[in-house]
Structures are given as C-alpha cells and as structure tokens.
Amino acid sequence: MGCKRILLSSNYFPALSMSTVAGEPGAYLGMEVRPRAYDEFRAETRRRLSTSVWATGGCTSWYTHGGKVTNNWPGLMSEYRRRTRSFDVDNYHVQHEVPAQQGISA
C-alpha cells in the first residue's frame, strides 16, 4: 500500500480532530487505543498476512524480518479507505480536558 496510505491518512486525521468524538475541536488532550481493539486488529492482521507471499515464501523484502512479516496492512487500498472513513470512539480511551472551573486550584 505504501505512500497511498499516507495520502488517505492525511485526510483521516484532520477530519478526526474536527469530529464530534470528544465534543468541540480541541476539547480533548489525547487518545489511546484500547487493548481489546489493538489485540483484535493485530490478530486479524497476523491471520491475513499468514497466507501472503511474504509469509509463505518466494518473496524477500523489507516486509519480513527474521521470518516474521512486519507489513502493517494486509488488505487493499479500498478496504483501508473504507475502514478509516469513520471513527469508532469505542476503540479508544479519550482523555478530555478538564475545564478550569472543575480543576484543582493550587
């Protein structure tokens, strides 16, 4: 997928920052992928890559290291685009900003 993923991601992340994920733009400090979502994605990716030419032999490239496939996406560009078109907040822990009036004063 290479650099095309970067082009798609460059559209995804600005849209994400302006989304209603955390309310108003700038109303959150950060996000972290939930362990369940990460584990499910890694299991799917490994399963799909296990049947690729990189895993079954006949191909050597920077996508493999020590017999392990290190490519980060097993699918087509169209699938990547479809899967990143929307944001599932349930897969993330969103850290919201604390309004000043609710914060602890020194």
Key terms for this structure?
two-stranded antiparallel sheet, 14% strand, 106 residues, FAD/NAD-bd_sf, alpha+beta, FAD-bind_Monooxygenase_sf, elongated, 40% helix
Structure description:
- The chain is an alpha+beta fold and 106 residues long.
- 40% of the residues lie in helices and 14% in strands.
- The chain has 4 helices and 4 strands, in the order αβααββαβ.
- A two-stranded antiparallel sheet has the order 1-4. A two-stranded antiparallel ribbon has the order 2-3.
- A hairpin with a 2-residue loop joins strand 2 (64-65) and strand 3 (68-69).
- The protein is elongated and about 65 Å long.
- The mean pLDDT is 75.
- InterPro entries: FAD-bind_Monooxygenase_sf, FAD/NAD-bd_sf.
